Amino acid sequence: MQIERDPYRVAGTAGLRHTPRLAPRWTAIMYIWIKALHVAFMVTWFAGLFYLPRLFIYPAMADDAPGLERFEILEKRLFAIMTIGAVLTLVFGLVMLAMNPALFAVGWFQIKLILLAGLAVYHYRCLTWMRRLKAGYQPDGTTWLRWFNEIPVMFLLGIILLAVAKPF
Fold first, then answer.
1. Is the pLDDT of residue 124 over 70?
2. How far apart are CA 168 and CA 151, in angstroms?
3. CA-CA distance, 125 to 34, in Å (whole number)?
4. What is the DSSP code string of 98-151?
5. Helix, strand or coil for residue 88?
């Protein structure tokens, strides 16, 4: 019978240290499931971040009250879904950090946290746009909103490249 030297080396969990309450193998398996949920809810969050700013453009082009009301309802529902995705992404991310606090010392992870802080600001900015549009604000044009719609792509690329490539 061969004994495995590093029980933490399970599909990307190298360096993971187990909590005293759980056996190392179960901790590694649990970490993988938590990471999968973290990614799934991150996808939900980003889907909302990609589409919500697009919804801000349509009311600027609509001139009828039912159309404006419809967009307002869509925006509220989408914002609720993407906020749930953001909160659950954060929860599962914090659980992974509790299981592997050594990540705080890694350079790529520190930059990822900065990008996540920027993403949280962007999320809040979407809320402020919703409130402005609900209050009757009509932008002069949609060019700025179209550029605003592309910002999450930069965050997504940066976060994924850092998390997958781990350049430093």
1. yes
2. 24
3. 29
4. HH-GGGGG-HHHHHHHHHHHHHHHHHHHHHHHHHHHHTT---S-SHHHHHHTTH
5. helix
CA 164 – CA 1 distance, rounded (Å): 34
Question: Quick one: tokens of 123?
Answer: 């999320």
Residue 9 has pLDDT above 80, yes or no: no
Three-state secondary-structure class, residue 15: coil
How confident is the model over 64-115, as pLDDT tens digits?
Answer: 888 788 889 999 999 999 999 999 999 999 999 999 999 999 999 999 999 9
| CA separation for the pair 62, 50 (Å, rounded) | 21
**Which of 71 and 1 is assigned the larger pLDDT?**
71
Q: How far is CA 89 from the centre of its chain?
A: 6
Give the count of beta carbons closer than 10 Å to the beta carbon of residue 29: 15
Instruction: Map residue 168 onto helix, strand or coil.
Output: coil
Rounded distance, CA 74 to CA 95, Å? 32
The two three-digit tokens of residue 103, written as one number: 């990540």
Q: Which amino acid is at 93?
A: G
Question: In whole angstroms, what is the distance from residue 18 CA to residue 30 CA?
Answer: 10
